[in-house]
C-alpha cells in the first residue's frame, strides 16, 4: 500500500504527486546557494557539480545581480530552473526602488549596466521575490542578510532582512562599513530557527551554532558556495576571475 505524501512535507513547492511514497523523500536534497552577483559561468560550474535531480529543491539567497559580468544570464537561468525559489537581496531591492521611483540617485554606478541588461521577464521575476523561505520541517529559515535577534524573525521587513550585517551600539541593523565596531548579527543569534544567509562576504563559510553564512565573495574572486540541507554539506566552485577589487 502506498502512503500518499501530503503538502506538509513540502512547504515550498506544494504537495508531491499522490503516486509518490514516503521512501524517496529523504533522497531529495534542499540546496541553498549564496550570492551569485552576475557570475554566470561560476553558476553553471556549480550546477554541474551539484547535478540537481528532479526532486531536489534549490533556494538562492538573493543578490543574483550586479557587479559581475552577466546579471541577465543569471536571472534568466534561475527563473527557468524547476523547483527553485530565489529570495530578495539588497541589490534587487535597490533596483526595484529605482524602477518604482525613477530617481537615478537611488542607483549606484554599476547598477546601470544591470538596468541595461534585464528584460521584462527578469524584472517581473525580481519584483515577486520573497524575503524569507521557511523550512519548518528542519527548523531552518533562509534569508539574504539576516535578522535582528531582538525581534521575532517573521516580523522583520525587507529593509532589515536584506541589509543587516552587524548590529550597532544602539541595537540597529547596519552594514559593516557603517558600524565597524558593530557585532555580527550571526554572533548574537541564538535561534531557533537555524538561519542560512548570504550578503556578508567572507573568505570561507561562516558556521555558528544557529546560523550558516554562504557568501564567499565569488564576485571578488572567491568562491560560489552551496549548502545541502539538513546535513549542511558545502559544495564550492572557484571564481574564474576577480570581477571586483
Ligand atoms: Mn547583499
Written overview of the protein:
A five-stranded mixed β-sheet has the order 3-2-1-12-13, covered by helices on one side. The radius of gyration is 18 Å and the shape is globular. With 245 residues, the protein is α/β, with parallel strands linked by helices. Strand 1 (30-33), helix 1 and strand 2 form a beta-alpha-beta unit. The chain has helices spanning 40-50, 71-80, 90-101, 111-117, 120-127, 158-161, 185-188, and strands at residues 30-33, 57-60, 84-86, 132-135, 140-143, 166-167, 173-174, 183-184, 194-197, 206-208, 211-213, 223-229, 233-238. The longest helix has 12 residues, at 90-101. The site of manganese (II) ion has 7 residues, from helix 3.
* Whole-number total of structural domains: 1
Classified by CATH, the class is Alpha Beta
- CATH structural fold name: Purple Acid Phosphatase, chain A, domain 2
Q: Globular, elongated, flat, extended or rod-shaped: what is the shape?
A: globular
Helical content band = 10-25%
Spatial strand sequence of the major β-sheet: 3-2-1-12-13
Biggest sheet record: 5 strands, mixed
Amino acid at each position: 500500500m502506498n502512503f500518499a505524501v501530503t503538502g506538509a512535507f513540502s512547504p515550498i513547492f506544494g504537495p508531491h504527486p499522490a503516486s509518490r511514497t514516503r521512501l524517496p523523500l529523504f533522497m531529495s536534497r534542499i540546496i541553498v546557494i549564496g550570492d551569485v552577483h552576475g557570475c554566470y559561468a561560476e553558476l553553471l560550474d556549480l550546477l554541474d557539480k551539484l547535478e540537481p535531480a528532479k526532486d531536489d529543491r534549490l533556494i538562492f539567497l538573493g543578490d543574483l545581480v550586479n557587479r559581475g559580468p552577466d546579471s541577465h544570464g543569471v536571472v534568466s537561468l534561475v527563473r527557468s530552473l524547476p523547483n527553485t525559489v530565489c529570495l530578495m537581496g539588497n541589490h534587487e531591492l535597490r533596483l526595484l526602488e529605482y524602477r518604482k521611483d525613477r530617481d537615478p540617485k537611488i542607483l549606484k554606478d554599476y547598477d546601470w549596466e544591470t538596468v541595461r541588461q534585464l528584460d521584462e521577464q527578469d524584472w517581473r521575476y525580481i519584483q515577486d521575490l520573497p524575503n524569507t523561505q521557511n523550512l519548518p520541517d528542519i527548523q531552518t529559515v533562509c534569508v539574504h542578510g539576516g535578522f535582528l535577534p531582538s525581534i521575532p524573525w517573521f516580523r522583520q521587513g525587507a529593509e532589515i532582512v536584506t541589509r543587516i550585517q552587524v548590529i550597532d551600539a544602539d541595537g540597529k541593523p547596519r552594514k559593516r562599513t557603517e558600524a565597524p565596531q558593530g557585532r555580527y548579527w550571526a554572533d548574537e543569534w541564538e535561534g531557533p530557527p537555524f538561519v542560512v544567509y548570504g550578503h556578508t562576504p567572507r573568505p570561507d563559510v561562516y558556521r555558528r551554532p544557529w546560523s550558516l553564512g554562504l557568501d564567499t565573495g565569488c564576485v571578488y574572486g572567491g568562491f560560489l558556495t552551496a549548502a545541502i540541507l539538513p546535513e549542511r554539506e558545502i559544495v564550492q566552485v572557484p571564481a574564474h576571475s576577480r570581477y571586483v577589487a
